[in-house]
Amino acid sequence: MFTADLTNTVVICICSITILRAVEAKKCGPGFYFDSNRNCIDDDECGVSESTSSALCGANTDCYNTHGSYYCTCKKGFFNQLGKTNFTNRTNCQEINECYQKPLVCGPNTICLNTLGSFYCLCKKGFITPLGLTNFTDGSTGCIDINECEKDPCGLNENCINTKGNFSCTRNKGFALTTGEHIVTNKTKTGCQNVDECLKIEEHCGLNANCVDTPGSFNCSCKEGFVSTGEATFNNKTKTQCKADLCLSRICGPNTVCRSKAGRFYCECIEGFSSASGGTRVTIRAPCVGLEFLLPKSSSFQDVNTFVGQSFTSLSKFQSRNSEEFHRLITNFLNVMEEYAIKAARNLSHEEIKDFSTDHFDVIIQAIRNNTIPKGRRAKLATADNSMDIDWNSVAGKESFDVAAAALISFKQLGSLMGAKLLGSTDNESKLEVISEVITAAVTNTDKENLAGKVTLTFKNKKDNNGTRKCVYWDSSAYAWSTRGCMLQNFNATYTVCTCKHLSSFAVLMALYEIKEQHIYNLHMITVVGIILSLVCLFLSILTFTLCRSIKSVRTTIHTHLCLSLFLAELLFLVGISRTENKTGCAIVAGLLHYLFLTCFAWMLLEGVQLYLMVVKVFNAKSLQLKYMCLFGYGFPLLVVVISAAIYSEGYGTDKYCWLTLKSGFLWAFLTPVSVIILVNAGFFIITVWRLVDKFSSLNPDMNDLKKIRAFTITAIAQLCLLGCMWIFGILHSQENTIAMAYIFTVVNSLQGAFIFILHCLFNKQVRDEYAKILVSVCNMKKTSKYSEFSTSSTQGLKSTHETGM
Questions:
Q1: How far is it, in rounded angstroms, from Cα 795 to Cα 766?
Q2: What pLDDT was estimated at residue 311?
Q3: Which of 138, 543, 576, 647 is most buried (CB neighbours < 10 A)?
């Protein structure tokens, strides 16, 4: 009873308070209430919890308090069915499915997944975002295709093909998948193995063929007794077949050989034979005749030209051109040409001249009749490039004659066929080559060995190498060129004139630049003796510059390194220049010689620089430091050699010498830095000499003119030698390889060490004084007067050295 009364009392109180606040609120206005101080305060209708706002606005809403009121909105990802954005009535908001919106929120090649109030995007299989993201909401760009073939997903002997969102593997030609499938996407589960096409040989190669299987392919070739209609090896039977080899039936005639090609055959004359028509091919069962039996059809020059063409074609295919058989056929050909030329000349009228020219030869003929010799009494016949001058009595050979005829034939390609074999020549002879056309001088006189006078022959040179010329004739009994009875009259770059006592076929041979054995021996002995002398002199020079304290200076230091480099170069040259047995060792020797000789020139340049500093930059100027001199003197040549070897390593070592090859201009790897050093040093030398002329008088007023001239001359000679003037002969020798230049270069080059000893030791008064001092002490020649004079001169020389550094 008491409890019920208490409950009613509380309800009454609450209602009273509510009524009271409502009354008070009306006094403050809607959305406000009185606080304890009786002030109007804004009432937060939304409350502080989500349940309060949801109770006021509805599910999936957000409540926002305003001054004296409030409003509701749907949460992100939800919408109001009434289409209102803000509302105050309690309304439940429903979820928005973004994946159905247009345009699509995720873009192409994607999968859209809706979530409560939101969504996210995924790339389809085989696609990826440009940024490599897995989940994303900004799908405006969509996903791009992944090129799986870049990761080589296929197995061996398979070809990867990328597709949109995927890839596939197909077998290469000649291979089959182990699973029997045509397309796969997992190389761990399948692979390709080679297909042996030769198991079905007729299907792939056809009949009468052999088959050889290869990885991924096969090769076919015809069986013995069959020939291919195309290539010897093939793999397409639709284009190439194997047919019976008709040559096996021996259907070609005598002195012929059967050739099969592309399923066909033809008969060809063997070496030394020709067809009746003059070609190398003949019809079935037709014979080939020997070249010694081949003749022109008539004496007309048209038929003779056909004969020449046939002969040249057959002779050019002769394999052994240096054989006696070949030269016998050459002799027979020349005799036939001579016979038919005279036969044609006999038909000419008195003093008539007739010529004929083809691609193979030029001929000119002339005849006289009835014992009538023209004025001048000489026959002068000339083709385009050659001429003959002969006495008519030598042509006729007798006092009484009905007809006397002469012919001159110039063959345009015969010289290259005949070669340059000289009768009686040995291996030590110089190499020869034919430098003119081969000409045949023919006359009606049968006694060609005993002419009434000499015949003069003028040849136009095909080339001119300033070599030794030889006038030769063809010795038909020895089948070789011979100089007997022929002499060289005169020559120039264009023509060569010969005189001979007999008639035959003639030519001009030229000796190439090969030094004969006697000269080789002489040059070798000069080189050995000269280098040994240079080594001794260089050794004495090194001892002098090292041990003589009175001449110690920067210049003597440079001279020491120069002599040391040249000593090693000359020693290596002496023992290794001809050691060509081992190509690798020879290349190493050539590289070391290249380095050592360049080192000599580098120290020569340093001497020019030091002389310039002492004279031009005032005598007490600071000298070069040793560490920098060594860095340049030994480092610069090493750099040149390393670069040269890296560019063209094959340039070191030749068949004859361990030196730089002349091929590809590789010798300039040595000549270029040498030339630059010579030019630079020449500039220093010119400036030095010019300044010396001005300074000598002021620096040493007591020196008379004679001493000035002598000092100046010695300096000039030493500088010129050290600038490498002696190597000019070497450059000339490589450009113009004559015997005289070879001797000059050998003598001068092998005596470099001796020249240095003479110029820097014997011509130096201080060094001579030191030598004299040593000799005096050794021989115990201690005369007071001489010793006093010697000491005075030594003291003066030492003073000069300390003052000038020279």
A1: 9
A2: 84
A3: 576
Give the pair of three-digit tokens for residue 624. 């070069």
Query: In this structure, how many other beta carbons lie within 10 angstroms of the beta carbon of residue 7?
Result: 10
Domain 199-244, what fold? Answer: Laminin (2.10.25)
Long-range interactions of 524-528: CB distance < 8 A, separation 24+: 526/743, 526/746, 526/747, 526/750, 527/574, 527/746, 527/750, 528/574
Query: Tokens for 343?
Result: 């036969």
Q: Which two tokens stand for residue 276?
A: 């009746």
Decide if pLDDT at 406 tops 90.
yes
The two beta strands, 273-274 and 289-290, are antiparallel
What are the structure tokens assigned to 266, written together? 């033809």
Q: What's the pLDDT score for residue 517?
A: 54
Q: Which two tokens stand for residue 706?
A: 């004679």
Q: Band of the pLDDT at 192, cuts 50, 70, 90?
A: low
CB-CB contact of 415 with 465 (8 Å): no
Beta-sheet strands, E only, within 77-165: 78-79, 86-87, 94-95, 110-115, 118-123, 127-128, 135-136, 144-145, 158-163
Q: What is the pLDDT of residues 680-704, one digit of tens each?
A: 877 877 777 777 666 655 545 445 5
pLDDT tens-digit readout, 611-647: 777 766 654 445 678 888 999 999 999 999 999 999 8
**Which option is the CATH number for 526-763: 2.60.40.420, 3.30.70.120, 1.20.1070.10, 3.30.465.10?**
1.20.1070.10
Q: Is the dihedral of CA 602, 606, 611, 612 positive or negative?
A: positive
**Are 530 and 746 in contact, with CB atoms under 8 Å apart?**
yes
Interior/surface letters 450-477, b for 16+ CB within 10 angstroms, e for the rest: ebeebbbbbbbbeeeeebebbbbbbbbe
| Residue 165 parent element (H or E) | none
State the fold for domain 2-94: Laminin (2.10.25)
Listed as own residue / partner, the contacts of 237-246 with beta carbons closer than 8 Å and 24 or more positions apart are 237/204, 237/205, 237/206, 237/209, 241/206, 241/207, 242/206, 242/207, 242/208, 242/209, 243/208, 244/208
- Sort strands 353-357 and 361-369 into parallel, antiparallel or unpaired: antiparallel
Average pLDDT value for residue range 140-158:
81
Helix (H, G, I), strand (E, B), or coil: what is residue 771?
A: helix
Q: Cis peptide before 103, with omega less than 30 degrees from 0?
A: yes
Q: Within the chain, what is the greatest distance between any pair of CA atoms? A: 192
Residues of the chain with CATH 2.10.25.10: 2-94, 150-195, 199-244, 249-292
**Spatial separation of the C-alpha atoms in residues 804 and 613, rounded to whole Å:** 11
Mean local confidence (pLDDT), 204-233: 84
Assign domain 295-511 to a CATH class: mainly beta
What is the value of pTM for the model shown? 0.40
- Among the residue ranges 85-94, 563-572, 574-583, 747-756, the one predicted with the least confidence is 747-756
CATH number of the domain at 249-292, out of 1.10.10.10, 1.20.1250.20, 3.30.200.20, 2.10.25.10?
Answer: 2.10.25.10
DSSP, collapsed to helix, strand or coil, labels residue 657 as coil
The better pLDDT of the pair 336, 757 is held by 336
Show the CA angle centred on residue 118, arms to residues 112 and 120, nearest 5°: 35
Flag whether pLDDT at 219 surpasses 80.
yes
Q: How far apart are CA 450 and CA 453, in angstroms?
A: 8
Give me 549's structure tokens: 């304290």
pLDDT band at 710, cuts 50/70/90? very low
**Environment class of residue 793 by beta-carbon count within 10 Å: exposed (0-12), middle (13-18) or buried (19+)?**
middle
Average pLDDT across the chain, whole number: 77
